[in-house]
Every structure is written in C-alpha cells, then in structure tokens.
Amino acid sequence: MKVVSFVNMKGGVGKTTLAVNIADFLTKRNFKKVLLIDVDPQFNATQCLLNGDDYVRYLEMKGTTVIDIFDYGKTSTSVVAGISERKTLPYDKISPYSTSRGFDLIPSRLDLFRFEMAPGQGTENRLKNYLNHLRKQDEYDICIIDCPPTPSVWMTSALLASDYYLIPSKPDPISMTGLDLLEGIIKERKDNYGCDCKCAGLVLTIVEKKTIVYNKAVEYFSKSLRWKDHLYAPVVSKRTDIAKGQLSGKFIFDIDDSELKKDFSDIVLQFLRRVEE
C-alpha cells in the first residue's frame, strides 16, 4: 500500500477536490482498492462523501473517525465527574466507512480542533502505526491523506505516515509563492522527525488555460530547477460543474465533459506512475 499526502499551505487551491476525485478515478477506472483519510478539521473531504444526515447518523451509530486513530487514552480530571480515563481503541476496531463511490473513508470531525495533541508525545506516530496495521491486512493499494492547509501536528502525522506527498496549486502568483514556504516546512519535518516521503509532483488546479496568468505559471515552473520535473502536464481546468457538485455527491467522473475527464484521467495515470515506481 502506497500512502500519499495531499498538501498545500494555502486554502482554496482545490486540494480536497483533487484528493476525492483521484480516489474516485483510481477506484472506477484503475480498479484500485483505495482508502481516503481526512485529517483536516474542516472535514471538507468527509462532507463530499457523507451528507449531513448520514454523517450525524454515522456518529450516532458510533462510527469511527480520525479522532479514534489519534486518541491515545488519556486520564482527565473533572470537578463534576472526578478522574476518568479514555480507553484507546485498538487499531483493528477502527473500521473505515464504505462510501457509495466504491472506496473507503476515515472521516474527520469538526471537534478535531479541540482534541489535545501536543508535539513530542508520540501521538503523531499513531497514524503511521495504524497504516502499518492496515498494510498487514493487505486491504488497500493506495491510501490518500487529505491534509489541513496549516503546518499543524496533523500535517506532521500525515507526512510521517506517507511515502509521497502531492501538491495541488492554482497558477497564480500568491499560490506559487506559497510553494517555497511549503517546501521549507516539509524539509523541517524531515529534519526534525526523520520522515522520508518524496514529492509525487505538482498539479495545477482551477486552471483557465487561455489566460496570461496560466501561461506565465507554466513558463515559470518549466524553467524552475526545483519544479520542472515535478510539474504534471495535464491540469484540472476551472469548471463550475466541479464546484456545484462538490457537496452534492457529483464527481468529475460524473460530469459530461470529455476534455475535463481526459485531462483528469491523464493526471491519475501520471500519479500512478510516480507513486508505484
């Protein structure tokens, strides 16, 4: 099982769109067994795959979420309840949710913001340990981790657990400037935590191909010693249908747009070549 984190320090670059749709294409066109893990407290990937009613029902039925992976069993004291202890859920009890798209999901939760996980406690290794447990079961070919757009302990955990990281970026000056910051943060994680994940490439998203901004972005990346070998030739074009379908269960695979689907299929094939070599 190959593990790939989708990362960027800037929100609104199509990171979640890329993550859920690559998972979808890998399942439907490439017949891969895929697990998607949402470690973003904003839980956008989760919302793409579970509507509000189903999500509430899932939680009421004690469905497991990413919090169960990180919850290490901690003693807490309350003036009302006194001393209590949360029990760590064994990895074999953390069951992914089977989505209607054919791949599995470990959902996130909004209250991940309130979950206490300080660096240095070893908790940042629990995601890696959980995925190593899944590797032994040989259930999945690829695991995609949708990361938050912040240099948080959640991102650190994802990078520690990953073989690769993929960067989605809009072809605009602000997004492009943020890539150097992202690379600095990843290098710091490698130096301080010993993670050895490799870059699986840079995908341009929300692209308007005939614009000057896009052409300048392609020229910049093509000449950059750092990025020219990482840049994917196919791009994710800007389409209102993608945005409209994001929270209504409609994916790129479902859109009647041959050019969009051809480009996205090429992205997925290039993605597979890079992470399966």
SSE topology string: EHEHHHEEEEHEHEHEHHH
Total number of strands: 9
CATH superfamily (homologous) name: P-loop containing nucleotide triphosphate hydrolases
Report the sheet with the most strands, covering strand number, pairing sense and barrel closure.
7 strands, mixed
Assign the CATH class. Answer: Alpha Beta
In the CATH hierarchy, the architecture is: 3-Layer(aba) Sandwich
How would you explain this protein's 3D organization?
It is globular and about 55 Å long. Helices cover 40% and strands 15% of the residues. The chain has 277 residues and is an alpha/beta fold. It has 10 helices and 9 strands. It has helices at 15-28, 44-49, 52-60, 66-70, 126-137, 153-161, 173-193, 212-223, 240-245, 258-275, and strands spanning 2-6, 34-38, 75-78, 82-85, 97-98, 104-106, 142-146, 164-169, 198-204. It has a single domain (2-275), classed as P-loop containing nucleotide triphosphate hydrolases (Rossmann fold, 3-Layer(aba) Sandwich). A hairpin with a 5-residue loop joins β5 and β6. A 7-stranded mixed sheet has the order 5-6-2-7-1-8-9, sandwiched between helices. It has a two-stranded antiparallel ribbon with strand order 3-4.
